Automatic annotation (TrEMBL):
Lineage start: Eukaryota, Metazoa, Chordata, Craniata, Vertebrata
Gene: IMPACT
Protein name: Impact RWD domain protein
Region (Disordered): 298-320
Subcellular localization: Cytoplasm
InterPro entries: Impact (IPR023582), Impact_N (IPR001498), Impact_N_sf (IPR036956), Ribosomal_Su5_D2-typ_SF (IPR020568), RWD_dom (IPR006575), UBQ-conjugating_enzyme/RWD (IPR016135), UPF0029_Impact_CS (IPR020569)
Matches recorded under SUPFAM superfamilies: Ribosomal protein S5 domain 2-like, UBC-like
Complex formation: Interacts with GCN1; prevents the interaction of GCN1 with EIF2AK4/GCN2 and inhibits EIF2AK4/GCN2 kinase activity. Interaction with RPL39; this interaction occurs in a GCN1-independent manner. Associates with ribosomes; this interaction occurs in a GCN1-independent manner. Associates with actin; this interaction occurs in a GCN1-independent manner.
Length: 320
């Protein structure tokens, strides 16, 4: 290991130890080997109203040569709020090139949350925060398994709240379900080339009562931007801690693009522990293989562009 590599590794160790000491229980190690961490941040009130989780991955080149890979995880963080906060964090990074910046990021986010708590902003609309104990037979929740079809689904007469009737609804496919200890997992896949298509697919999926009733609907997507030669990507935990990030990481490893994968989980009343992540990723990988999204080794080596591993909001909470 070169001296610079050793120095970077030591800088990361020092920063992690410092942050763990500063933030205590609000600091969480998601995956030590992959250097994935999460910091819970709130508005400092006795009963916090505004909270956010900052999930970061420290690449080998951080802090001197690469920025942290991050996600801003909060159910209320949307649109303009997200863009403003992301721009602030990137500005902090640019102003402190080569330095450890996670503490600066956390305290800036806390400052934003305190401002929200002190302003007239309405309280955030918080979605479900835990698994509901549901003793329904898993078979009641299964969608019909659809074999591979060449022809895409025709455009539906469906208008979203943003008048996106001109945006064609992509074909949606459902993978083969996996059931373990009464929990059922099923993946859904759709080809997407714009964020609007992602939204349309998600809205269409939620029209299905079985999917809407799922305890968690975890998703991730990757869209290759030809003009910028980067990837636009995002993921969503929907209450299953770190599941969205793991799903996105799987898609990055498999080098898939222009696709959205949603994995529904119907909780059966028995906690599965780490096995739930295995089932989520297996469902996703199976459907990607079935619909030919996983390139061969030769094709993968020719894929253009670098992943811009910085995207939006994921609701990230724990399994109860």
């Amino acid at each position: 290991m070169a001296a610079s590599d050793r120095e970077r590794a030591q800088q990361q160790i020092d920063e992690i130890e410092a942050l763990s000491s500063i933030y205590g229980e609000d600091w969480c190690v998601v995956d030590e080997d992959e250097k994935i961490y999460c910091i819970k941040i709130n508005d400092c009130l006795d009963q916090p109203k505004w909270t956010l989780c900052l999930q970061v991955i420290l690449p080998p080149g951080y802090p001197t040569a690469e920025p942290p890979i991050y996600q801003l995880n909060a159910p209320w963080l949307r649109g303009q709020d997200y863009m403003e906060l992301a721009n602030v964090l990137e500005e902090i990074y640019v102003q402190n090139l080569g330095e450890s910046i996670l503490y600066l990021w956390v305290e800036k986010i806390r400052e934003v949350l305190i401002e929200k708590a002190q302003s007239s902003d309405p309280e955030p609309d918080i979605k479900k925060t835990s698994e509901e104990v549901d003793k329904h037979d898993g078979d009641d929740f299964l969608l019909d398994y659809q074999p591979v079809q060449e022809d895409p689904i025709k455009m539906l007469n469906y208008i979203t709240s943003e008048s996106q009737e001109d945006e064609e609804l992509p074909s949606i496919h459902h993978g083969n379900p996996i059931t373990d200890r009464r929990s059922t997992f099923q993946a859904h896949l759709a080809p997407v080339v714009t964020p609007r298509q992602v939204k349309r697919v998600l809205e269409k999926l939620y029209e299905n009562k079985k999917i809407a009733s799922a305890t968690h609907n975890i998703y991730a997507y990757r869209i290759y931007c030809e003009d910028k030669q980067t990837f636009l990507q995002d993921c969503e935990d929907d209450g299953e801690t770190a599941a969205g990030g793991r799903l996105l990481h799987l898609m990055q490893i498999l080098n898939v693009h222009n696709v959205l994968v949603v994995v529904s989980r119907w909780y059966g009343g028995i906690l599965l522990g780490p096995d739930r992540f295995k089932h989520i990723n297996n469902c996703a990988r199976n459907v990607l293989v079935e619909y030919n999204y996983i390139p061969s080794v030769e094709e993968s080596s020719k894929q253009p562009g670098k992943s811009k591993k910085i995207r939006k909001d994921s609701k990230k909470r724990t399994e109860h």
